[in-house]
Amino acid sequence: MRPGAVSGAGSIRELVGREAELEMIWTFVGEAAAGGAALVLSGGPGTGKTVLLDAAAAAAASSPARVRVLRAVGAEFEANLGFSGLNQVLWPLLSEAGGLASVYQDALRVALGFGPGPRPDHLVISNATMALLGHAALMRPLLVIIDDAQWFDRVSVAVLAFAARRGVAKVGFLWAIRSGQSGPIERSGVPTHVLRPISDDDAATLLDSSSPTLAPRVRQRLIVEAAGNPLALMELPTALSAPQLAGFETLPRTLPLTARLRTLFEGRITCLPGQTQRVLLLAALDCTGDLRVLRAAAGTSALLDDLAPAERDRLIVLDDVNHRVDFRHPLIRSSVVALSTGGERREAHRALASALLNQPDRHAWHLAQASFDPDEAVAAMLDQVAYRMLHRVDLAGAVTTSTRAASLSPHTVDQARRLAFAAYYGARSGECGIGSRLLAVARQADPSFPGSLRDAATAAYLHIAGDGDVSTAHQLLVDAVRTHPGPWDAAQSPFIEVLHTLVLACSLAGKAELWTLYGEALSRLTPQVPVDLLLRHTVFADPARATAASLDRLEHALAGLRDETDPTIILRISGCARYVDRLHLCREPLQRIAQGSAGARSFEEIALRDLALDCFLTGHWEESERLANEGLGRAKGRHHPLRTSSLRYILALVAAVRGDDDSNRALCDELTSWAVPQGVLSVHYGSLRARALAALGRGDFEQAYQFAAAVSPPGKFASHVGEALFVCMDLVEAAVRTNRLDEANAHVAAMRAEGIAALSPRLALVVAGSAAIACPANIATELFEQALGTPGTERWPFDLARVRLAYGEHLRRTRSTSSSRALLSAALAVFQRLGALPWARRAGNELRATGQVRSTADRPDPVLTPREREIATLAASGLSNKQIAERLYLSHRTVANHLHRIFPKLGIASRAGLRDALLSVW
After folding, report:
1. pLDDT at position 695, please?
2. Above pLDDT 90, what percent of the chain?
3. What angle do CA 9, 13, 17 make, to 5 degrees?
4. Cα R_g (the chain), whole angstroms
5. What pairs with residue 16 in β-bridges?
6. Closest listed residue to residue 622, CA positions, set 825, 864, 883, 877
């Protein structure tokens, strides 16, 4: 049996992250059977020592040598009983002692309590033990396994360590001890392997196997609290309620422990002096470890003396330089809290609140935790804390604080108001389950609450983010706005929440008429409209008709994002930049959010979406695909289809330009099946754009026309539809290719009438290029030259290469062969570099038609991207798509798509030819 093949599903789960130790155990068993060996496994409680011993026993029993296993377990109550441990080990062998010298037989019988006589000399007992073990090993190799050896009596430890150090042929000694609790064994000279905490990735794997339905936020909290302890990862979920596991209820600051986890440290904690336990409870509830705060709360100048017993028992670590105390493991902190009474905890919180009068947020929180009855004064203090957290964009903290404030509210009106606040920002943080539950409780608490602005904003957002339809969400907001005519104070959050939710509903619905209400509501704000709301009205709502003044205002706002720390403002302004080609101006703040900067974890997927879209538009398709997949990975486990659909849209675009029609079709079908029933036309338009782009690549111009025209009808530039700016050249080219010249020219005229060329260099290139494609041949050259002369278009290589390709095709048809070759070669080089295979084939065919013999478009291109090279190498080594996906943090479908592109590049039909093909290329 190889490592990992341990019976019992639980054991297999607990061995996650211990692959290196399992291999070491397998090797150790082989060495012990061949000539003898000794090893000590040292680790904290719950690190998996016993499971590794089980693995060793299983490996020994199934080994070719049929190793015999002798197991013993130390017991704390026998630690002072001489030779009790040796008795456990040797008892099964005493019947085989007849072949030993009589002096050894007598010594063992007396030492183990089976015969009378004076206590033998330790050296005699040690030699007798070695002789007995060696005699038994003559028949079959032996493996002596001792668990919890820190509780073995000292004389037994001395005897067995003596045998282990000197070595007994074909006898292995495997010990497991708790780190720092068995000095004699640790100083015995036997080789020791310390079990370290498992990695966060392994912890996530273990949680996914044992508790697969955890909400992502709960999963991350458990990983942090367990700190790499496998037992804690298995046990902590079982101490939580079903709503907590699903993310419908916020988790307490100190997680509850199961009885099994409490026993890990209970004996050590309860044996401490009472004052030490009291100070430890203060430290556990304070969380910061600041000794100055603890000294003030404890009301003593002898704080270090009070903590000394816990430090000696290795429960805490004192940092005299930084005046801090830290628990050696989060479970110790949780155990201290779990072993206290409710009264003791409230008393400790009151003491901490008194010590933190100069820190309003912490003072209010501890005062709230010390409160047992409703208290409006404390609840009002928590309101201020929640608003400050909101300003820092700590949405999870604001939700928890406001929920606690609601529980302390004496009046149902205040309770409903606070619950609604928590519900709205719970939903905004991506936890729609929490938002729905809190909103329902708020409505039950106060019958007059339904119909309020905050009720409408929360209910509408939950409709949008979940499975509700956008029209219902919009109607909820319409009713709320009409029943609150204003004027509205821009400093009051309910008004702002309604407006931002209304923007979202209008943009998703993709209908111009819905934006009328937003303009009306915006005019009610006093004293002035916030910049992000104004930009969403003047640029984001209908980007094709953005004025020069609004674009200047946008660029000024984008420049200010360098110093902006509020991720909601960054994302709202970056959203305004999306369709007018200014996403590159906010890459740095978006990267800060994507990297999980303080307060931004709830918005990582949105930032990744905008970064991925910018990478797609600027020709960094590998990075675009990686970012989109990373966003989907972070959204895993959350039910937030709106966020995941925007990421799948980008993957559909990447699949379209690469010629991966199967993936493009599957992704677009997925987008459409969700978006259309919910009335989310903006997502549907995005899928139509991706379908049109794919159809153009494969030369199906009729389909491309139908898809593009469904986004923006020819001759009429769609109002309040951002995707219309992305499909305009697609529509013109498809119309020309299907002999719809009138429609093509009508759309060019619409583009010019709306002045979209002034929005960005890319759109100036697109307008001039579209005009050149649609116009008569005798004036096309001038328009193509105008398009290619547009400054700043190098930022968008794919669009630029498409215009060069169209110009080269025009020149070839007008028999300007040498000029066309230069343009077609340049376009081909870009398409090949980007991985736009359908477009590269088309450019190659055109180039060959000019008489140029050498065309790389007609044969497999052996130049692989770095990601393709990495995947090809792993696949050639024998890894499956799933294994490659896990190693590279991709989806298995993405790996399959990469291989689908790699095979034709290398000229092979399956992964069986990968190894030889890679050798020939590299």
Report:
1. 95
2. 40
3. 150
4. 35
5. none
6. 864
Place of tokens 């074909």: 170
The 10 Å Cβ neighbour count of residue 742 is 12
User: 811 and 823 in contact (C-beta within 8 Å)?
Assistant: yes
* Of 892, 852, 861, 862, the residue nearest 874 (C-alpha): 892
User: How many whole angstroms separate alpha carbon 850 and alpha carbon 853?
Assistant: 9
Cβ(311)–Cβ(332) below 8 Å: no
DSSP codes joined into one string, 631-655:
HHHHHTT---HHHHHHHHHHHHHHH
Number of Cβ atoms within 10 Å of the Cβ of 321? 6
Instruction: Give, for 41, the enclosing helix (H) or strand (E).
Output: strand 37-43
669 CB neighbour count, 10 Å cutoff = 13
Q: For residues 636 and 619, give the distance between their C-alpha atoms in angstroms, rounded to a whole number.
A: 27
Q: Which of 101, 147, 149 is nearest to 127 (CA)?
A: 101
pLDDT for residue 639: 66
Q: Write out the two tokens for 572.
A: 């709202």
**For residue 8, pLDDT beyond 50:** no
Residue 834 binned pLDDT confidence (cut-offs 50, 70, 90): very high
Name the DSSP letter for residue 79.
T
Residue 451 CA neighbour count, 13 Å, CB half: 6
Q: Who's near 492: CB < 8 A, 6+ residues apart?
A: none
Q: What is the pLDDT of residues 727-767, one digit of tens each?
A: 999 999 999 999 999 999 999 999 999 999 999 999 999 99
Q: Do 579 and 543 contact (CB within 8 A), yes or no? A: yes
* Position 446 pLDDT exceeds 60: yes
Helices 681-697 and 641-658: crossing angle, nearest 10°?
10
Compare 701 and 468 and report the one with higher pLDDT: 701
Q: What is the pLDDT of residue 803?
A: 96
> pLDDT tens digits, residue range 884-905?
877 776 777 788 888 888 887 7
Environment class of 448 (CB within 10 Å of its CB; exposed 0-12, middle 13-18, buried 19+)? exposed
**Beta-bridge mates of residue 71:** 145
388's CB contacts (< 8 A; 6+ apart) are 361
Write out pLDDT tens, residues 116-131. Answer: 777 788 888 889 899 9
**Average pLDDT of the chain?**
86
| Cα–Cα distance measured from residue 632 to residue 628, given in angstroms and rounded to the nearest whole number | 6
How far is residue 609's CA from residue 401's CA, in Å, rounded to a whole number?
A: 30
End-to-end CA distance of the chain: 39
**Token pair for 219:** 């999963």
Instruction: Give me 845's structure tokens.
Output: 């065919």
Average pLDDT rounded to a whole number, residues 234-249: 82
Sequence-ordered strand ranges (E) for 345-428 = none
Q: What is the DSSP string of 189-245?
A: ---EEE-PPPPHHHHHHHHHHH-TT--HHHHHHHHHHHTT-HHHHHHGGGGS-HHHH
Q: Is 113 left (phi over 0), alpha (psi -120 to 50) or beta?
A: left
Q: Checking phi first, is residue 871 left (phi over 0); if not, alpha (psi -120 to 50) or beta?
A: alpha
